[in-house]
Amino acid sequence: MKKLFQLNVYITSLLLIFSAFLSAQKVETVDGVRVVHNEKSGKWGKNPKVSLEFVRRIGELETEDENIAFHIPSDIAIDDQGNIYVLDAGNHRIQKFDPDGKYLATFGRRGQGPGEFFMPSSLDLDYQGYMYVSDPQNQRVQILKPDGTEHKTISFHQTPAGIVRLNKSGELVMGKGGIMVRMGGSESDSQGLPKVIKVLDLEGNVQREFGEAKKFKDEFIERNANSFHFALDKDNNVYVAFDFQNRIEKYSPEGQILWSSDRDLSYSTDLSKLKADVKRTGGNINIQMPQMNRCSNGIAVDGKGRVWVVNLKRQMEEEERVGTRLGVTMAGGQRSISMSFEGATDLRETDMYQLEIYDQEGILLGTMPLTHFVDDIWIVKDRVFMLDKMRGAQFYEYRIIEK
Fold it and tell me: Residue 66 region, left (φ>0) first, then alpha (ψ -120 to 50), else beta?
């Protein structure tokens, strides 16, 4: 009788644990796609399996050392020797540091020639140390040798070059990061929305396209609402986290969607009724975008296949906001673009952000609070790099601690 009682208690405990797990994640199949609906409590509950240990900051605004005085840094990459490469976009250069953070070299400068950039958007490295630089203002992706000299240039004339990542097969995986706006009509009017991801060969030829952007009634809303971050894993799978839509997706290397995941948020991401205010006066156009709730700000994958997403716990308060001022001028047939930030640029700390960690099937494992602003995230081996682009112009480096 005692053994039977113990067995019943054991079975009941298992059922309670299983029931609690089910209540945190609801999985269904929609149009043949696995869709995961996660509640705020992840699978780990109050016992997270990982933590982060702060290592250092890379970059400093108030410094006389011009080598670490970044302006609008946009990307970071690590080579096989542990050397660190920072794409310092606002200064039109790449800064190379050794594993201890000692400055080694500068590659590039402002311009249109070989090895020159103009506000480059992304950087990646291959196993030989060749640098793949997306230079959209010059309509190209440059491949530079380890010494910074030109190896090859891939030109893009029809559409601007997007964020580029190199997969393990030697292909370029490119994300547009948004839908291109054409004044006088949406790009989707005649040809449908472009796919989210393009995979190209090293000649710039598109091998395949995949990922569905979402259609909205307003073309300006459509562009912003479909902006995203993406990352690759060691098996060439592609992960996409939409900035203003509550969806995270995983695609196979061939472009098949493997799952779509969402989570319980404390704010709405309904964009269906929003509309931009567009005023045309002579040759000038003034566009006032409505407030859109952002839910993601970066995605990365670690060596165990776990997916890390920068999530907003709440929306930015007025006193935290930083605005971007973009200036475009034409003189002598040459275009000049300037970018500056205004607002709460002195702020470094906030409780607005957290890291969400998902397993390989889109199940939320747990969350981790952050104490600073984050505009993107990268993971290399056991290191996590998070970017504060607009305020501190610096990277925060952490070490993943397995518990």
Answer: alpha
Read off the DSSP letter of residue 323: E
pLDDT at position 331: 60
What class has domain 32-315+334-402?
Answer: mainly beta
Side-chain-side CA neighbours of 246 within 13 Å: the count stands at: 18
Specify the residue for token string 């994958």: 301
Alpha-carbon Rg for the chain, nearest whole angstrom, is 22
| pTM score of the predicted model | 0.89
DSSP label at residue 312: E
Q: What is the mean pLDDT of residues 340-363?
A: 92
With H, G, I as helix, E, B as strand and everything else as coil, classify residue 19.
helix
Q: In 10 A of CB 31, how many CB atoms?
A: 6
Closest CA to 398 of 49, 47, 57: 57
* pLDDT tens string 224-246: 999 999 999 999 999 999 999 99
Buried b / exposed e across 301-315, counting CB within 10 Å, b at 16+? bbeeebbbbbbbbee
Stretch 345-365: mean pLDDT, rounded?
96
Amino acid present at 198: K
Partner residues linked to 338 by β-bridges: 327
E-state strands within 5-149: 25-30, 33-38, 50-58, 73-78, 84-88, 93-97, 103-107, 122-125, 131-135, 140-144
Beta-carbon count within 10 A of 17 CB: 10
Classify residue 22 as exposed, middle or buried by CB count within 10 Å of its CB (0-12, 13-18, 19+). exposed
Residue 55 has pLDDT above 90, yes or no: yes
Q: Would the CA dihedral through 91, 92, 93, 94 be positive or negative?
A: positive
